């Protein structure tokens, strides 16, 4: 049917996709209008099923161009409940055109193509599966009977679990060049780092005229878990704060069963520090691979890092000055204190970036508690794609590993303050306890990290230089957070404002 009615379907897609794409969580340019959508390529995923991978060329109102993967299924019968989720449009004859990720037939074909290392020829290019040779025998057996489900929490990509054994991430916005997530997970798996879900394979697309691959999908082993690191820590914190508020006096807290669970969070923060250091040690282990070889953090590299941090500070200061009158109390006092101490903060930031900062290497790049799978007694690190808003070139840049460390420290600070916020606890006792928890978790994480990475060449040589470089990136992160919160969650901006104190003191 697709072949005989191609014009009907393609014209329908061109008509409906400009409205459909902005409704998708993974569409990157929601603030811009779509001028045109072209079907750059159509790749049939399975002969006996009307399932296709479309490559879309999206022209935006500012004349910029983006490319997207669009799974497509043609459903000639009444669509299932799941299939209706992805309905794009229907033809007059009752045929439904749906986004294929919500069709089990398409998902099966996608998995089979990847694990079979198959190449699918399209109109203007090819789609190819690439599999880690060590996994082939295991995958052939698994591929005989496939069950799959789409994870509901879509963000910049789509995720599918197969047979409760494999995790596939379908990249939606496609760019030319190596994708940092596939590159990093493959490297870490080969380097023997066992706390990343093992790399299985990937899928790439190449336009005939370009001769360069675009990463379309990543397949890893699925790690059974009970949630992410953020959910684990904040749940314990909220339970403890509620118990504290119901206690008759402070001493009663120490009789609560939650005391043991709180102490366990410190142990888990320590374990997280160890896993973070192990990740950085693995990422610094190959001194011959140009994509991963560490480089000195000095000279132009250090100046560039300072310039980026200074820019975030400048933007945050402008936001605070422009909006100070709109901030509620006591957030306005925190903001005023930062504005009044602007020169001190500028001087501190500049001084911190003069420290001898060790080396730069490939790092996670978007490291926080939400990027951890919690198994109940350990952590697996996931989502190595970096910040989706940045280009692939930017996301593949080498940076100081202390940027990852600062990201996790800030995430622990957020966890403590989120627990207070979610319970509407602004009393002095709860706030004091949350600060104690953060201080202990921070200390446990950082001391464990330093002990595991002791004498690593990528870290500054002595305590003073280590602390200065860490504070440089903590300051950058806080100013970034101020900008982010004002633009996305204004009522959260008090958290990074409170964070400034803990950084510079």
From TrEMBL:
Its Enzyme Commission number(s) read: 2.7.1.175
Return the broad EC class.
Answer: transferase
What GO annotations for molecular function exist for this entry?
ATP binding; kinase activity
Highest taxon, organism lineage? Bacteria
Enumerate the Gene3D superfamilies for this protein: 3.90.1200.10
What family does the entry list?
Belongs to the aminoglycoside phosphotransferase family.
Task: Give the protein name, as stated in the record.
Answer: Maltokinase
Q: Which organism is it from?
A: Acetomicrobium hydrogeniformans ATCC BAA-1850
